[in-house]
Design a protein that fits this description.
Layout: H1 14-20, E1 27-32, E2 39-47, H2 53-61, E3 66-72, H3 78-82, H4 92-98, E4 103-110, E5 117-120, H5 124-136, E6 141-143, E7 166-171, H6 172-175, H7 181-192
Parallel strand pairs: 2-3, 2-4, 4-7, 5-6
Antiparallel strand pairs: 1-3, 5-7
Helix pairs in contact: 2-7, 5-7
């Protein structure tokens, strides 16, 4: 059985989303630049779009790294209405933040009840450091293949100044377990180490 198309499947970019939905009523944007930081933590599907991702992104960024979140705030239907795919994510404030960031880590949510992190993106060194830190923190992690590999140059994780970044897909089981501290600790250690 084929799933019905989501409205967001047809978005070519942020302008399409902004024409269909209203900022402040349907979604909000948080963009915090930390002076001196060269790292951006991005949650492009935050709030009620991919639940739990905003909290993880905020905790990783803390007071050390730039933070950007686009958060769904509708009562329902946030994913179908507001999920702008990562290869088409071009919200202007996010792109401006990425223009001053050498390293980019995006936080996403994926399906799956097994608690795990799928690590994608073009920054091989940072991916391996994060995977090593996740292992130290007893978090199951794999280098992503297929749809979560994030190897496209247009993927938002690869649009910082270095043109390489990391995409972290946190399974539903991990995000909703309330036990994401190992992920937060691991990613911060990899970025600060």
């Amino acid at each position: 059985m084929q799933r019905p198309p989501r409205q967001s499947d047809g978005y070519k970019g942020y302008d399409d989303l902004a024409r269909a939905y209203e900022e402040g009523r349907d979604y909000s944007v948080i963009c915090i630049e930390r002076p001196g930081s060269r790292v951006a933590i991005i949650g492009p599907h935050g709030g009620k779009i991919e639940r739990g991702t905003s909290d993880v992104a905020k905790a990783i960024a803390a007071d050390d790294f730039h933070l950007y979140l686009l958060e769904g705030i509708r009562k329902s239907g946030n994913y179908a209405a507001l999920h702008l795919t990562s290869t088409r994510f071009d919200e202007p404030r996010c792109l401006l933040l990425l223009s001053v960031s050498d390293h980019v880590v995006t936080i996403h949510g994926c399906l799956g009840e097994t608690p795990e992190v799928q690590i994608g993106g073009l920054d091989t060194d940072l991916k391996l450091r994060i995977r090593g830190e996740l292992a130290k923190n007893h978090v199951n992690a794999v280098i992503a293949e297929g749809r979560f590999a994030a190897r496209q140059q247009s993927n938002i994780c690869n649009r910082g100044r270095s043109a390489i970044g990391v995409q972290l897909e946190l399974s539903r089981g991990l995000r909703l377990s309330g036990n994401t501290e190992g992920v937060i600790t691991a990613v911060r250690a990899a970025l600060l180490g």
